[in-house]
Amino acid sequence: MGKIHPYRGVHYNKEKIRDLSLVVTQPDKITPEMQEEYYRKSPYNIVRLILGKKEASDNERNNQYTRAREYLRQWMKEGILVRDETPALYASYQEYEAGKKKYIRKGFVALLELEETGAGVKAHEKTLADPKADRLNLMRATESHFEHIFMLYSDPEQKSINILDRATAGRDPDYEAVDEYGARHMLWTIRDPKIIEELKHIVESKTLFIADGHHRYETSVNYMREMLPYLDQFEQPEAPNNRQLTLVPMEQEGLIILPTHRVIHSVKGFDLDRLIGDFSEFCTVEEFPVEERDKLPLRLNERITRHAFGLVAKGAKSCYIFTLKSDNLIESLVGGEHSKAWKSLDVTILHALLEKFLGIDAKALEAYTNVKYVREPEEGYEMLEKEANVQAVFLLNPTKINEVKEVALAGERMPQKSTDFYPKLITGLVMNVMRRKSQ
Asked: Same structural domain for residues 295 and 410?
């Protein structure tokens, strides 16, 4: 139910940056190794703006945020980055492969008038203070939104996708890049007033759900609060009260969520036989030769309408699938004041089992005390083999999109690492650099 606007997006100048794949980055979770690789790829890689290197000599006047501001000013001055002359929306498509199947996810980029989460904008993830402080410092220094917020809305008839397909038909993308995971990100500029109004009409009647970018959204609201007395110094809509985001209809095959698996480590007295016996109080137990562990994700998927978890343990000759015996057990296992939607999540049920039988409570989950999180089962198996303190890997099915929606509508936040929308929306194809009236 938020109001959206076309805007004068800022892009890399394709005459000066021939291969945009060299200057874009993932939006978050950039490891030190990834940061080094981005720095190596190009002197104009956007990592210098969103996550610049820290220096031992940093102080209030010279630090990663002030350097980002100077890079931005210099690149705009040199024409490395250029601003569109007229406002536009931007069709945003991602072609990618997951589970040996090809997908295409469709949406569009706009500015959204900011509001607190809870009314027209629903959130489902908890946020942490440190990442928000970091993003706020960057926003203060650069007066820009470099990264996107991944926002969902309901469009079961796919009217907006039909409009976007019509707007992009027969046109090569204006901007495109391939990320390090092989996903192809494409952007088309849309200036046709009729198409813009059609998209606005569809989206502005919808409740919006944050898929990815909760820290960014809350930080943008905090920044807006700071800047409310100064809004008249900015040209609308490229101003602090609006936020760059990508809007994606949730009813499309191209929108997928990957599971995040749990790697258990450093649990005192861990005993596999006892754990299987404990879990069997609530779950049926299926046993398979450990040589078939690669088949566990497929077998879990066959049980996706139930609550099922895979288990591979260090040194075990078998691997296992646990399936909750009855939904009637959820209340006694999970308890608390949460909604039925929250309690019925696979991750909620698994976390309840881990707390009950291994003592891994919510604080331990958040602090990574006894759990690490991995996207690929093979990454967990490698930890089992190479890291002495790793004891087991629990595999999950992905969270369903309707579960995200139901939890958000209930006004709740999902357990940690419940959703992994893939691929991430890369940073660097279009950005919102705010415009002061003196500029």
From this structure: yes
**Contact status, residue 190 vs residue 9, Cβ threshold 8 Å:** no
| 89: three-class secondary structure by DSSP | strand
Strand partners, 283: 324
pTM over 0.85: yes
Domain that holds residue 379: 259-419
d(CA 52, CA 89): 29
Length of the chain (residues): 439
> What one-letter code names the amino acid at 253?
E
Q: Is residue 290 part of a domain?
A: yes
Rounded to 10 degrees, what is the CA torsion of 31, 36, 37, 42? 130
Give the distance between the most distant pair of CA atoms in the chain.
71
pLDDT in 10s for each residue of the chain, 439 residues: 679 999 999 999 999 999 999 999 999 789 999 999 999 999 999 999 999 999 999 898 999 999 999 999 999 999 999 999 999 999 999 999 988 899 999 999 999 999 876 678 888 888 878 889 999 999 999 999 999 999 999 999 999 999 999 999 999 999 999 999 999 999 999 999 999 999 999 999 899 999 999 999 999 999 999 999 999 999 999 999 999 999 999 999 999 999 999 999 999 999 999 999 999 999 999 999 999 999 999 999 999 999 999 999 999 999 999 999 999 999 999 988 899 999 999 999 999 999 999 999 888 887 788 999 999 999 999 999 999 999 999 999 999 999 999 999 998 988 888 999 999 999 999 999 999 997 6
What kind and span of H or E run contains 372?
strand 371-374
Residue 438 falls within a domain, yes or no? no
- Alpha helices by DSSP H, listed for 240-294, are 272-279
Chain centroid offset of residue 48 CA:
21
